[in-house]
Write a structure and sequence with these properties.
The protein has three domains: about 260 residues, HUPs (Rossmann fold, 3-Layer(aba) Sandwich); about 100 residues, Four Helix Bundle (Hemerythrin (Met), subunit A) (Up-down Bundle), CATH 1.20.120.640; about 50 residues. Helix 2 packs across helix 3 and helix 10 runs parallel beside helix 12. The chain is α/β, with parallel strands linked by helices. Strands 4-3-9-10 form a four-stranded parallel β-sheet. Strands 5-6-7-8 form a four-stranded antiparallel β-sheet. A three-stranded mixed β-sheet has the order 12-11-13, with helices on one face. It binds zinc ion. The site of zinc ion (ZN) has 3 residues, from loops.
Length: about 450
């Protein structure tokens, strides 16, 4: 029985897939106007880990994550740099995926772009107007939150307390300060689409409803993102869907903030770090390990100390892996310890408790070293293979310590050479061996694959 904390329910609930054996999830993707930061990395890793775990559990997952490529921030950057918004969006989308690839985040199965859905959004907004839950304001079409009885559900606050906390409406025509824009009129901007209400752009909260329903249907299993999206973004998505009588997402799941020191990371605080900056000096797997070692709903402290602790822990895992390989153990043919697999599943089923699961895998690592000390090779093989299989299930691959130290271009050449050998292209493989030699690396072919030494 798999359970997760559902923000709408306010408690941990059992997750029963809508279609047995399948799982449909929509995770809000980035607005592509700048480089990905540590908080982006965390949510992308958390939902990557969730997806991988459900796949490991045997579910066929449909993972959708959008690209918001129409937004005021994109427009502002484009104007400041005298470029087109499309150019800015394309640049940062490419950078986003190259960073995600470095983090080992699996590509979503569907990556809808907001600009491809503008027609659908116009039709959707029109339906909201016809259903009398939206109205025309001076500068666009707005959703009337008073038409929804439980507005504020995902904020875990009553409509009355939200109203008390909301700023006084800055626009007099708004019926409630919390009413949000569905279509922004922009007659002067070059970046706009024609609509029955005049040229403009869709509001962010409308994008995700339209794209998720188009791809996954009017009901699906999970909608997720960082905690900062729960309100107002997800709540505003939810009420639009409810107004159209969609069943929409069965569960809402949010991961905690990234903290730098005791403060939430943000650009304005100046403690903002891009993922690329972090990955310049840190193995990308160390950031995944750091994310795994804390519960996904807890705040995650990212600072020099926690990053270096995670890097050292990763080195210990890699060196145990290397020690096992050096003992001549073939991990690929080792059997797995069923009891450990079950224990892992029980822990992970309990609200994706990667912190406890990872701690247990580190205990297995210590046991592997002890078993090697005692020359109990067969048991060491089973224990190590189980540990690596389970780390693999949550996206962390162990590599030999020596291999981990290799420069990227050498790793790339080694991969090409392995592919060439597998394809029996020996001329090509010899040529790659010479290229590696020129870089100062000697390659030997052994029964367990290529071995590399610095010359
Ligand atoms: Zn969204």
């Amino acid at each position: 029985m798999f359970r997760l904390f559902d923000t709408a329910a306010g408690e941990i609930v059992e997750i029963v897939p809508m279609i047995p054996g399948q799982f449909s999830m929509y995770v809000c993707g980035p607005t592509v106007y700048d480089l990905a930061h540590l908080g982006h990395g965390r949510y992308a890793l958390v939902f990557d880990i969730l997806r991988r775990y459900l796949e490991w559990r045997g579910l066929k997952v449909r993972h959708v994550s959008n690209i918001t490529d129409v937004d005021d921030k994109i427009l502002e950057r484009a104007e400041a740099e005298n470029r087109s918004p499309a150019e800015v969006a394309a640049e940062f989308e490419e950078k986003w995926f190259s960073t995600m690839d470095r983090l080992g985040v699996l590509r979503p199965h569907y990556i809808p772009h907001a600009t491809e859905y503008v027609e659908n959004m116009i039709r959707f907004i029109d339906s909201l107007l016809k259903a009398d839950v939206a109205y025309a304001g001076d500068d666009g079409i707005y959703f009337d939150v008073n038409k929804v009885a439980d507005y504020g559900l995902l904020a875990r606050q009553s409509p009355a307390s939200l109203r008390a906390g909301a700023r006084v409406a800055e626009k007099e025509f708004k019926r409630s300060a919390m009413d949000f824009v569905l279509w922004k009129l922009s007659e002067t901007s070059a970046w706009s689409w024609e609509s029955p209400w005049g040229p403009g752009r869709p509001g962010w909260h409308t994008e995700c409803v339209v794209m998720s329903v188009d791809i996954l249907g009017e009901e699906f299993d999970l909608h997720g993102g960082g905690l900062d999206l729960s309100f107002p973004h997800h709540e505003n998505e939810r009420v639009q869907a409810e107004a159209m009588h969609y069943k929409f997402s069965r569960h809402w799941v949010h991961n905690g903030f990234v903290m730098v020191g005791s403060e939430k990371m943000s650009k304005s605080l100046g403690n903002f770090t891009t993922l690329d900056e972090l990955l310049e000096s840190t193995d990308a797997r160390a950031y995944r390990l750091l994310v795994l070692q804390s519960h996904y709903r807890s705040p995650l402290d990212v600072n020099a100390q926690t990053v270096s602790e995670a890097s050292r822990a990763l080195e210990r895992l890699d060196s145990t892996h290397q020690r096992v390989i050096d003992s001549g153990i073939d991990l690929t043919s080792s059997r797995l310890n069923e009891e450990e697999l079950e224990r892992f599943r029980d822990v992970m089923d309990n609200d994706l408790d990667t912190a406890t699961a990872t701690a247990r895998l580190f205990e297995l690592r210590s046991r592997v070293n002890q078993l090697l000390d005692d020359a109990l090779l067969e048991e060491a093989a089973t224990t190590c293979a189980t540990m690596e299989h389970l780390f693999g299930a949550i996206g962390l691959d162990l590599v030999g310590a020596k291999e981990a130290d290799l420069p990227d271009d050498v790793k790339a050449l080694l991969e090409q050479r392995e592919a060439a050998r597998n394809a029996k292209e020996y001329v090509r493989s010899d040529q790659l061996r010479k290229e590696l030699a020129a870089l100062g690396f000697l390659v030997e072919d052994t029964s367990v694959g290529q071995k590399v030494k610095r010359t």
